[in-house]
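Lay summary. Proteins are chains of building blocks that fold into shapes, and those shapes determine what they do. In this project we predict the shape from the chain. Here is one chain we studied, written as its sequence of building blocks.
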Amino acid sequence: MVPAVDAVELGSIKSRCRFFQGSIKLELLVAQRGRFVPAASLLPVKNLVMSIHHFTLATRDLQISSRFYQAVFNWVIVERPANISRSGVWLSIPGGQQLHLTEVPDFQPSQFEDEFGRHVALSVTDAELDEVRAKLIEQGTEIIPPQRDTPHRRFFFRDPDGYIIEVIGTVVAQ
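And here is the predicted shape, written in a compact code that computers can read:
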């Protein structure tokens, strides 16, 4: 970049015009801590559009965990890349997410699996909450009540590997 061709200063605001690679660049500068900085650098960063693609859980027994999530949530197995040497199963979660289960024979859950520790929270419609609870009970899974009240219905359970999973009922707008 070549030096500014034209610069206008109005107190704490300065404009600068530069020639750069055959184009004219007009820049607005603002006084910040005793020096002028590009005004654009002070604008809030635009939030990225993102969602969670997948989460991975280690499991002692791939077949038990895979069948559990399929039976309770109706998640289906999807193809996984052939270049993964570790045994695993990938399950498709409605909404474009996935659960990746990887087999780790000596896996032990964290002592921090808890409502106020590490856990995964899944949302279902409020109408589906009782259905999920019934399927869990059918599987012999203990339902763990929440430790605090919230404005929505919810409960916790431990999956076959000891992970704490929260299920939240959400009201769908009509």
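What the prediction tells us: Helices lie at 62-73, 126-138.
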